Amino acid sequence: DWTPASILDDAIAAVRAQVGDKRVICGLSGGVDSAVAAALVQRAVGDQLTCVFVDHGLLRAGEAEQVERDFVAATGVDLVVADAADQFLDALAGVTDPETKRKIIGREFIRTFEAAARGVVERAGEADGGDVEFLVQGTLYPDVVESGGGEGAANIKSHHNVGGLPDDLQFALVEPLRTLFKDEVRAVGLELGLPPAIVWRHPFPGPGLAIRIIGEVTRDRLEILRAADAVARAELTAAGLDRDVWQFPVVLLADVRSVGVQGDGRTYGHPVVLRPVTSEDAMTADWSRLPYEVLESISTRITNEVREVNRVVVDITSKPPGTIEWE
Ligand code: XMP
């Protein structure tokens, strides 16, 4: 008889058996899978677990706080935050090509995670000579099937799809979600007492807002996009439609300007694109038929509240031919 509670009990017992009294490290991305995996391992082995959150400065409004404050409050987890926003933005300066953005972000992510992981390992050694032997990964059953089901060496597959850790940082993997589908992971997350905002979070790409700013990524542009995105998400939530939509990218066409009239005069501002989609697995997708009233309130609020945006457009392309993200 499988209930979220019984799945959780079994998974906790398995983690305890695997880990024993060794130390464990886990990277948090802000996403559901790593959050549930970390909360589960925390429930199993308590403060033998240290989580690392690389804040790359490319998350949406409130998301870093969701990890640093809400996740910690809900789980009591020991969290190390690597605040790397400046480093990522410096590395992204002048870059407009989407794949180059991804490569740079992947590279900086690994660097930063590695340095933080080394810090955790050293700290554990100084404290009591305890070894950090395990790395938690939020691998789900569909990921296992997709990758051929092999055990593989520890690598940060995470959301950046980039390579492994260096040889002197070898961890065995703890993958407590390996037999679960997404809906089961969410049920287990709720069972663990995680906030609904984390459990029901839409998928979000590892490179974050960097691939939703068409053009160079700058602090100012991030601020504009964050503000517009926050409005779109708030209105979707207020309409009770979060779970009818798979993802809702908001895209800033940072190098495009058009003429508008806002307030007292003419403006020459940027458009944002709303890209709400429905999907089963992100391989194919359809554009969401959001109610006109919801689109209207998003458009009105964004153009009122985000000075730099004077036009809101809706992407009505299915996938294929359009991808979900614009980059
Ligand atoms: P596309 O845009 O190809 O996206 O239709 C399919 C799904 O993948 C996500 N996505 C990414 N996720 N790193 C990620 O971790 C990436 O570089 C990346 N690019 C796209 C996208 O949000 C959607 O869920």
UniProtKB/TrEMBL annotation:
Binding site for ATP: S29, G30, G31, V32, D33, S34, A35
Source taxon at top rank: Bacteria
Pathway(s) of this molecule: Purine metabolism; GMP biosynthesis; GMP from XMP (L-Gln route): step 1/1
E.C. number: 6.3.5.2
Keywords for the protein's UniProt record, in alphabetical order: ATP-binding, Glutamine amidotransferase, GMP biosynthesis, Ligase, Nucleotide-binding, Purine biosynthesis
Signal peptide per UniProt: none
All copies of domain GMPS ATP-PPase, residue ranges: 2-201
Catalytic activity from the UniProt record: XMP + L-glutamine + ATP + H2O = GMP + L-glutamate + AMP + diphosphate + 2 H(+)
Biological role stated in the UniProt entry: Catalyzes the synthesis of GMP from XMP.
Assembly mode: Homodimer.
Protein name as it appears in the record: GMP synthase [glutamine-hydrolyzing]
Species annotation: Microlunatus spumicola
Lineage, uppermost ranks: Bacteria, Bacillati, Actinomycetota, Actinomycetes, Propionibacteriales
Gene name, Swiss-Prot/TrEMBL: guaA
